[in-house]
Amino acid sequence: GTAIPFQLAAQPSSSVEKDIISNNSGALHVLEGRERLSLDGAWHYILDPFDVAGRKPKARRNFWENTIETPATGLIEYEWNSSPRMMLPAAWNDAEERLDYYEGPVYFRRLFTAPIEAEKRHFLHFEAVNYAATVWLDGNLVGRHEGGFTPFSIEVTDCIRSGTAHSLVVRADSRHGPKTLPGLDFDWKNCGGITRSVSLLSVPRNFIRSSFISLRNSQIEAAIEVDGDAGTSVKLNCPALGLTLSGSAGEDGKITLSAPAPDNLKLWSPDDPHLYNFTITCGNETAIEQIGFRVVEVRGREVLLNGKSIFLRGIAMHEEAFGAKGERAVSEAEARALLAEAKALGCNFVRLAHYPHAAHTARLADEMGLMLWAEIPVYWEEIDYSDKGTLALARGMMAELVRRDSNRASVVMWSVANETPQTPVRTRFLRTVIADVRRFDPTRLVTAALNKNVDVGGVRDGESIITVQDELAADLDVVAINQYEGWYGKRDPREIKQVSFRNGYDKPLMFSEFGAGAPYGNHGPREERWTEEYQAWLYEETLKIIAETPDCVGLSPWLLKDFRSPRRWHGRFQELWNRKGLTSPEGRRKKAWFVLRDYYRNIAVPKG
Ligand code: GCB
């Protein structure tokens, strides 16, 4: 029988000792100067809602074979050239009205011709395909990838010929379940497809797969991974610092170069987001990376940036663009608009919820001076935390994210999860992911958004003292809590005045979420749920509580902009939108926006 080419690649073993991040050769870095042929643009597509081709391959519907019917082939029940087209990258839900809530497999095809230099190596590079991708070149299966938000590269050196038209077919399957990440249930729209850029990267025989350039213990350190021959020479040069580092790769392709940080080194910070140009040379390839240097650490219950205590004036956001339709933010301009709105609010910090955002977002934050929280979609309880494959998937995703953004000074925190259940299997699962991150990246903090909030009562009658209790807190640098006093929960919202928070851990504490829903322009008394006045009042009350919470190092309220969610059913106020945004879908600012802006303005350059 014909092998079904759709099952996922065998997952790596999930033994705790195995270091997925270091062993994962991962996607190539898309560096400025690297030879790149864009494969974005118009692709044909074929829908297969019943997954017929996937389950029962047969010549007349093996779309990846790209066959044109002739008398010899017999019936071929598809025809690429006459199939509809879609401009990629895009979420198919946004590109095609009829695919608005479609979840399932879609096949995409484009033809391309590449000018090929014989001695080069070639990689198909995908910045993201949501969710599971299967890739064929000229009918041959060349690779698979699972996970909707992280990059992957597939080497096709032996398949590419100069001047020949190649057929590239990609199957994107957006179905989700208990063994995918995110799992069965999540509060945002599932947008399938080739949602970020595709390209053909061409590199010399020996080339730099990744670099991790950072400031550690007063040293500038570059951990380089060369793909190719042992002994390949590597050179890094930063003219502004008068710094040249060079050496050659070891047997495993790895090399670490370092030098004492020069006295004149200007550190990166939100107030002065200074970046240095590094030229990276390997073989006959020269690429450029922009690097900011900064030190983020925890001391007692404080977070320090470059040795000084800081307060994270944050906001959370989804990767969804301003505009009436709530489309996925695909372009750099859309990402910039979102970050600019955070800046206008007075933020120095953005929580990128709940999955890796595009690579350009962190690059923009580097330039604009925003610290970032970057997260993988280990979200809520409907995930099989006991499944080895799911754990391997989480580790792989984290590895892909950490490796992609290792050079981004803006990223100060990795988050391994959001609101996960308090079970031993889940804790073991997340501990494994955290151990990976810590081995690879000691230059950033690790967190997770927790939500097991326990009311330990108070001294006075009716008083509530709330504390987060989660055994995972022991493994985190920053304890982050999501809490919705005054929105979810049984307590009368007016009792919010009786509530206070306590930090039960000897660590910094932050409020990673709070909020209330209000459609823009819905006005009424502040006691009335769903009004802008209610939302603004809830912000005022919560901000008072936060100001009084000991050890609070910051906040990222939920969230910048209303966003689409299939699980928000209220016919008058939601209509499949989560209305907790501080702005309307188009970016109109609600009353609460100004409450938060004023709060951030008035924080007397507090702790930082
Ligand atoms: C949460 C989740 C977030 C939801 C939000 C809500 O706790 O972390 O993804 O969208 O609550 O609006 O309920």
From TrEMBL:
Domain Glycoside hydrolase family 2 immunoglobulin-like beta-sandwich: 209-294
Any one Pfam family match given in the protein's UniProt record, by short name: Glyco_hydro_2_C
Keyword Metal-binding listed: no
Matching SUPFAM superfamilies: (Trans)glycosidases, beta-Galactosidase/glucuronidase domain, Galactose-binding domain-like
UniProt keywords, alphabetically: Glycosidase, Hydrolase, Signal
Acyltransferase listed as a keyword: no
Coiled coil: none
Domain Glycoside hydrolase family 2 catalytic: 296-603
InterPro entries: Beta-gal/glucu_dom_sf, Galactose-bd-like_sf, GH, GH2_Domain-Containing, Glyco_hydro_2, Glyco_hydro_2_cat, Glyco_hydro_2_N, Ig-like_fold
Annotated Glycosyl hydrolases family 2 sugar binding domain residues: 38-204
UniProt similarity note: Belongs to the glycosyl hydrolase 2 family.
Protein name: Beta-glucuronidase
Organism: Parasphingorhabdus litoris
Taxonomic lineage: Bacteria, Pseudomonadati, Pseudomonadota, Alphaproteobacteria, Sphingomonadales
Underlying gene: uidA
